[in-house]
Amino acid sequence: MFGFKRVKIRSAEFGLYFKDREFQGVLDTGTHWLFDFLGNTQVDVVSRRQPWIVHDKLDVIVKSGALAGKAEVLDLRDHQRALVWIEGRFSHILTPGLYAYWLGHKEVTVEVIDARQVRFEHEHFKTIVNWPQAKVLLDICTINRDHVGVLFIDGKYVDTLSPGMYAFWRGVAEARVVEIDRREITADVSGQELMTADKVTLRLNALVTYRIVDARQAVSTTDDVRQALYRETQLALRGVIGTRELDAFLSDKDAVAREIEQAVRVRAEALGLEISSVGIRDVILPGDMKDLMNKV
């Protein structure tokens, strides 16, 4: 028919009707004759088999109200994300923006999440974080067995996390998890040159066995708790050995070890540590002193 355009919309389709680039309405299933004398009519046919309406003029289409009863509109703000299930199966995560999905053809379920709650928790947590694109939107971390995680958000302590998997929304706040090993650890304090009260220089190797009992304190007090304990043990060794003469030290090394342990224990508590034991492993005397003692 001259001056008219014939448009056929099949079942499971809709037509988005534009004239002079202005949205006119939605065409339902059937054959439509549109006056198009000037060739200024356009119909974009979209399938309802694809749940989401994808169009560069979606905002205009939504504002017209033509989608009422045909589609559900979703307008996500900057602090919002949406979890999408299609036919009962998790599909994807939506970021801020305008969306619309058809009603009646496929079962679409949308759950809007407030991302200002930076830590993401959900009953279907593992399914969601295993979505291939999840790492684009979520910081995902795993805390191993016998460890804990100290959680800071925007530099502030929030919680101490037990072993498991955790996720935090990107782009909302800075979430940082410091993983701490709660198992017993042995530190080797080796090669310390010390001077006794009678001015004899010797070298001493010691062992300190400890574990972290307050993860938050261990992370917040110093940037390297192991190195801090190493330095404190060095100072304790110097302080205790420096008050004894060589003979007194060699004759009762166990008493010296107990005194060193007590000195280290006090400082370790401030670091969030618990000392299990402090022991003297090796005592290395200067060559001339060693020769003299061997002769004696």
Describe the protein's architecture and organization.
With 296 residues, the chain is α+β, with helices and mostly antiparallel strands. The chain is 25% helix and 45% strand. It contains eight helices and 19 strands. The chain has helices spanning 58-64, 125-129, 134-137, 215-221, 225-241, 246-251, 253-270, 287-295, and strands spanning 4-9, 13-19, 22-27, 30-35, 41-47, 71-76, 80-86, 89-94, 97-102, 108-114, 119-120, 138-143, 147-153, 156-161, 164-169, 175-181, 185-195, 201-212, 273-284. A three-stranded antiparallel beta sheet has the order 3-2-5, with helices on one face. The chain has a three-stranded antiparallel beta sheet with strand order 8-7-10, with no helix packed on it. A three-stranded antiparallel beta sheet has the order 11-15-12. Helix 5 (225-241) packs antiparallel against helix 7.
By secondary-structure content and strand pairing, the structural class works out as: alpha+beta
**Which strand order spans the largest sheet, edge to edge or round the barrel?**
3-2-5
What is the terminal separation in angstroms? 125 Å
Largest sheet, in brief, is: 3 strands, antiparallel
Question: How many strands appear in the DSSP assignment?
Answer: 19
Give the helix level as a range of percent: 10-25%
pLDDT averaged residue by residue? 89
Shape: rod-shaped
Low-confidence stretches: 290-296
Supply Rg. 36 Å
Share of β-strand residues: 35-45%
Compressed to H and E, one letter per element, the order equals EEEEEHEEEEEEHHEEEEEEEHHHHEH
Tally of alpha and pi helices: 8
